[in-house]
Specification:
Length: 298
Amino acid sequence: MGSQNGTPPDTTKPPALVAAPEALPAPAASPNGESTQPPKEAEQPVEPAPARKNGEELYFARLPRSEGRQHLWLVVGFTVLTITGFMVYLPEEALLFLGVGFHGAATDLRMLIHRMGAIVLFCVSGYHLYYIVFTKDGRRFFLDMLPRLRDVGETFGNLSYYIGRSEHPPDFDRFNYRHKAEYFALVAGNTLMGISGLLLWTEEYWDKFILDIALIVHSMEAVLACLAIMVWHLYEVHFGPHKYPYDTTWLDPLVSESEMKEMFPAHYRRIMADPALMKIYLRKADGSPADLPEGRAK
């Protein structure tokens, strides 16, 4: 077994005298090459914990508050559209049982609420486009979200971890391959739903053939979006073992330092190596910017 610092011991020489810890960085080795100290568990190559002032705990801003608000309005719009949209496909008997008729004023009210939800989704999508083009946080978000070659390796590395072939999951950055796949699926889905919904909203201007295609696309994409949210997103974000039963990051964007090291180690190391990123992400427990660790301020 090697020495504590990872360098194979030289078994051709007699063991050196044991010096004080501050004078000898590596422990002495016995003649048979074994360390004289008990082995330590292997650690991930993460940045050392920075010095704290008054022992305060360090937090990281996982999402800027603007992104949290965008997510909130997206949830509101999506929920309204889902409920009022699928009401069209409910049997008449089910609606009557719920005390909701499907004629006259009830139909007009459902249509009005559905279109209000669509307006909310249009506004959120439009603001998000502005956000990723014209703001620094938005451009940083989009660049971090772009697919990279390392995502392919992380995909297979994570699958290897799931089946027990690897002891540790990959060192994920701010967004992993699952986040990126879901984000761009959301962009594609919103685009299809928006275009087909506008065609159905302005049906008096289009031929029946166009409207039939728009209705099929709108309906099938709605089913796919709901399945993606219920089967994929809810488990990955909320019902997974690491966050069960609920992840509050989209409401309170702060995560602890220990969670950053465990879930996003590559992002953690990148932040701790760059004082400019520290100013962006380091926070105190109340959400205010944290003082830069000693020796890191520039």
